[in-house]
């Protein structure tokens, strides 16, 4: 990959030589939530002649190796070092690992070498970053320092040399290296966004929501989460109303103002087992040919954090017969904003069979209802395995909330979305 276009049209990042080129991937095995990545191998990097403003920076990255406070300096986004004399020897930018001399045990840091002593804000402690993460550096409320968010969480940080803070405007930047160090980042970068002024809370939440939906990231603390907003400030996931259904949030949707067109999705969190798609689920988001009928239409999904292996036995009351039913211990909530149309829900049969095996006289089923207790408008349908997957297509009512889970029932019933 010789260059990465700047959507603002001014500051395309480019490789300075053939051997420093990173690799662009758009494949089922390399993508993050079905979207392309730019992969850096520890010696590759890109450089641009301007475009980064330190008032507000977002970087979405997934390191190959887990980042802890024991990790060596790993340079993610380097920016200009304007100080003529740098007594600390540190370098400006957003970094992983022990990248500064000003503190110890840092996991993420933001350096601004605008004076000889330099400015630093860092997350120190025992956090581990081994998955795709939204890193956000922003001016604080009084514009005399920075704050640091990861996946929408305001991190506990250490600030050093606050009096040396000064914003940089339209500075040069390097991806996977700094102005004065060799490249050493091993991992993927999918998006870099910078604003020339600090965003307000609502606008920052819009950007976070866009990035979270695109990458399958749960904003906030998994299990508590926070609201997701579209570009018009409309709440498309209300964490306060979701109750226990705030785990492993992911979704699809179209938002023209943010150039979001996510047609299929799965949580990036380990352990979630559901994928959804608009009509289909292809190898990549680009390969899915489905469309959305209107702007600002979304489907977001989350689970209740239940143990998949915890099984519950009951019966299906058909009146004339009450066959047995066994369900897994996890439920999902679907929140539709607007009218998305046909939705495909997919689970790999192996993800069910590990906890819920079926005999030759049983089949897997999906249960859907209008409430979390599965007492209102309950529907059950037999699932047929195709290519190792169990798929279910459904067109949910516009602006609706629906709940689903999986189980097994006697094969001879051949349940066809029956209403109980």
Briefly say what this structure is.
The chain is 6% helix and 40% strand.
Task: Write the topology of this structure.
Layout: E1 3-4, E2 13-14, E3 23-25, E4 37-41, E5 46-52, E6 56-63, E7 74-79, E8 93-96, E9 106-112, E10 119-124, E11 133-139, E12 146-150, E13 153-154, E14 157-160, E15 171-175, E16 186-195, H1 201-215, E17 228-229, E18 235-237, H2 239-242, E19 247-255, E20 260-262, E21 264-266, E22 274-278, E23 297-303, E24 312-315, E25 324-327, E26 332-337, E27 342-348, H3 349-353, E28 362-369, E29 379-382, E30 385-386, E31 389-395, E32 401-410, E33 418-419
Antiparallel strand pairs: 1-2, 3-4, 4-16, 5-15, 6-11, 6-16, 7-8, 7-15, 8-9, 9-10, 10-14, 11-12, 12-13, 17-18, 19-20, 19-23, 21-22, 22-27, 23-26, 24-25, 25-32, 26-32, 27-31, 28-29, 28-32, 29-33, 30-31
Helix/strand class: mainly beta
Largest sheet: number of strands, sense, barrel closure: 10 strands, antiparallel
- The rounded Rg comes to 24 Å
Helix content: under 10%
Count the helices. How many?
Answer: 3
Question: Which band does the percent of strand residues land in?
Answer: 35-45%
Quantity of strands, as a count: 33
What's the mean pLDDT score? 93
Q: Distance between termini?
A: 56 Å
What coarse outline follows from CA principal-axis ratios?
elongated
Runs in which pLDDT lies below 50 for 5 or more consecutive residues are none
Can you put this structure into words, describing what you see?
The protein has helices at residues 201-215, 239-242, 349-353; strands at 3-4, 13-14, 23-25, 37-41, 46-52, 56-63, 74-79, 93-96, 106-112, 119-124, 133-139, 146-150, 153-154, 157-160, 171-175, 186-195, 228-229, 235-237, 247-255, 260-262, 264-266, 274-278, 297-303, 312-315, 324-327, 332-337, 342-348, 362-369, 379-382, 385-386, 389-395, 401-410, 418-419. It is mainly beta and 420 residues long. It is elongated.
């Amino acid at each position: 990959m010789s260059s990465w276009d700047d959507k603002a049209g001014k500051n395309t990042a480019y490789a300075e030589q053939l051997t420093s080129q990173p690799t662009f991937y758009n494949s089922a095995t390399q993508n993050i939530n079905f979207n392309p990545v730019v992969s850096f191998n520890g010696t590759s990097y890109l450089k641009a002649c301007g475009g980064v403003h330190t008032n507000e920076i977002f970087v979405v990255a997934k390191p190959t190796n887990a980042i802890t406070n024991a990790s060596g300096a790993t340079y993610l986004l380097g920016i200009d070092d304007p100080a003529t004399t740098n007594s600390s020897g540190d370098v400006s930018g957003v970094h992983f690992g022990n990248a500064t001399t000003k503190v110890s045990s840092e996991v993420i840091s933001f350096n601004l070498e605008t004076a000889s002593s330099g400015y630093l804000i860092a997350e120190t402690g025992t956090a581990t970053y081994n998955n795709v993460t939204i890193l956000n550096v922003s001016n604080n409320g009084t514009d005399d320092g920075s704050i640091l968010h990861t996946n929408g969480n305001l991190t506990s940080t250490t600030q050093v040399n606050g009096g040396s803070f000064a914003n940089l405007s339209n500075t040069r930047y390097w991806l996977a290296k700094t102005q004065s160090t060799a490249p050493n980042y091993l991992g993927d970068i999918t998006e870099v966004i910078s604003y020339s002024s600090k965003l307000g809370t609502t606008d920052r939440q819009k950007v976070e929501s866009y990035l979270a939906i695109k990458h399958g990231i749960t904003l906030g603390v998994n299990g508590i989460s926070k609201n997701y907003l579209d570009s018009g400030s409309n709440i498309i996931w209300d964490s306060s109303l979701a109750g226990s259904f705030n785990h492993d949030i992911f979704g699809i949707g179209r938002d023209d103002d943010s150039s979001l067109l996510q047609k299929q999705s799965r949580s990036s969190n380990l352990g979630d087992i559901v994928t959804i798609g608009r009509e289909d689920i292809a190898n990549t988001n680009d390969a899915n040919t489905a469309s959305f009928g209107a702007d600002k239409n979304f489907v977001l999904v989350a689970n209740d954090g239940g143990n998949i292996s915890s099984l519950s036995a009951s019966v299906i009351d058909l009146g004339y017969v009450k066959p047995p039913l066994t369900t897994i211990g996890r439920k999902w909530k679907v929140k539709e904003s607007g009218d998305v149309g046909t939705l495909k829900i997919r689970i790999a049969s192996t993800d069910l069979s590990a906890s819920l095996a079926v005999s030759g006289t049983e089949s897997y089923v999906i249960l859907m209802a209008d409430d979390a207790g599965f007492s209102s408008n309950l529907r059950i349908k037999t699932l047929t395995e195709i290519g190792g997957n169990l798929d279910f297509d459904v067109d949910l009512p516009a602006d609706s909330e629906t709940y689903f889970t999986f189980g097994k029932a006697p094969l001879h019933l051949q349940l066809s979305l029956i209403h109980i």
